[in-house]
Design a protein that fits this description.
By secondary structure, the chain is α/β, with parallel strands linked by helices. The protein has seven helices and 14 strands. The chain has a domain at about 215-280: Alpha-Beta Plaits (2-Layer Sandwich). Strands 3, 5, 6, 7, 8, 9 and 10 form a seven-stranded mixed β-sheet that branches.
Length: about 290
């Protein structure tokens, strides 16, 4: 597991006498956490994200810790001399993946975001929405330890937005950290472990998630009757542990902060899965002779 990424008394300004965009920022990003940054336009959110992604250096203060990082910028340079699949595969090799594995992951992520049909399309010919799908996919193809998202949902269709939420849940469930900015106040509502607000270049105090039991995992016991059927792929991806207890019945363990993602996947399946109960992870199964 990668170490914390830590900002200590960090400040950033452009030019020797330029105004301070950020000043006195102390921030710790721990593995397995989801962090939201809020603030009005011009308060330094994008600058802070670039510092976290190590794309920019602080004018003062220190940034320590070097998790393997991927970044989705607010504006993605789509006019690149690659096809969509070629660009993703190229980024995969940059992240150290063997060429064949990078190509497979490129194809998988394009399919997940509904852009598989554009795999061979030159980047410069993609629509804005398809280009944004590639922008998000390029950050995920290398399984980053830190994922930094600057308005990454903007321009995506509803299916791709939901897929990105699932990808965020997967990253944190696997021990990665995610930091994001989004204009929609309801984006991943209740899921962040911490929220910080920027005001005039200063980072406000941390607000922890108020979700009960957000610090630990929970287990959902679900069923679809004797006929059973496969669990939705997105439910399997979000869960950290899946156990089939009987034909058509499963126990799925998921970080509490991402239980909404799992529930949505189960309840929107066709036909939907029935959630029999939710319990703390590690709780003993009920006595078969007891009544529910």
């Amino acid at each position: 597991m990668h170490p914390d990424l830590r900002l200590t008394a960090v400040g950033r300004r452009y030019g020797i006498r330029g105004p301070w965009v950020l000043r006195g920022v102390d921030l710790v990003i721990a593995p397995g956490t989801l962090t939201r940054l809020e603030g009005a336009n011009g308060t330094g959110k994008s600058t802070l994200l670039r510092l976290l992604a190590r794309l920019d250096a602080p004018t003062e203060g220190r940034v320590t810790g070097r998790p393997r990082t991927a970044y989705v910028p607010e504006r993605f340079p789509s006019a690149l001399p690659f096809t969509a699949a070629g660009y993703l595969a190229h980024l995969g090799t940059v992240h150290g993946l063997p060429r064949a594995l990078a190509a497979r992951r490129a194809a998988d992520w394009l399919e997940r975001f509904g852009a598989g049909a554009y795999a061979a399309t030159p980047m410069a010919r993609l629509s804005k929405g398809s280009s944004q799908k590639v922008a998000v996919a390029q950050a995920l193809v290398g399984d980053p330890e830190l994922l930094v998202l600057d308005e990454a949902w903007t321009g995506l269709d509803a299916v791709a937005r939901a897929e990105l939420e699932r990808a965020v849940a997967e990253r944190t469930a696997a021990g990665g950290a995610v930091v994001f900015v989004d204009h929609d106040p309801h984006r991943l509502a209740g899921a962040p472990d911490a929220t910080y607000t920027l005001h005039d270049g200063a980072l406000g105090p941390r607000t922890d998630s108020a979700r009960p039991g957000a610090a630990g995992p929970v287990t959902l016991v679900v069923a679809r009757g004797p006929s059973g059927g496969r669990l939705p792929p997105e439910a399997v991806r979000t869960a950290v542990c899946v156990e089939e207890t009987a034909p058509g019945s499963h126990r799925l363990t998921v970080p509490a902060s991402h239980s909404d993602v799992l529930l949505r996947a189960l309840l929107t399946a066709r036909p939907p899965w029935h959630v029999e109960r939710v319990e703390p992870a590690g709780a003993p199964p009920p006595d078969p002779g007891s009544r529910p």
